[in-house]
Amino acid sequence: MFKTSYFADQRLEIVILGPMRGEKNDSSIQIRDALIEILQERKSRDYLEKHAVLDKNIAITFPEEWKGSSIERDVFSKLDTADLVVFNITPREGETNPSPNVFYELGLVHSLGLPYLILVQDEIEIPFYLRGIRCYVVKAFEKEKLIKTLHQPIENFLSDNSP
Fold first, then answer.
1. Which of 5, 57, 104, 163 is the S-S candidate for 11 at Cβ 3.0 to 4.6 Å?
2. For residue 24, what pLDDT band results from cuts at 50, 70 and 90?
């Protein structure tokens, strides 16, 4: 049911969650830019047009952009309308463990049955609880590398061919 929710309301909302790094969250910006480029490709446009999802009804956001008074309330509100959530479980620079809040949000999304993708930077050990889940490894959070990594999963999501 959740996997194709964007068909029903003719909108697509993708939420990016990862370690908060302030307003200049480079990894979230790079992920968003990669997703925008993938969604502008002809094949993606065809899937979206087939279900009458117009450009004005596509939103790709992350917490640093939200201006609410409560991060928790903002996250829960966005998850309530999200069609897909992209998680970055890469630890903050100088830390060895992923952000606890990201794991909390991942658990919530998983329990709600929302579609999600997990990204992690190469050479970061994937935590035990995620080893049985497909995690997409990227060398670096650079737009071109992210496009290459996310292209097929996004196409699967849009075409409803997700495994």
1. 57
2. low
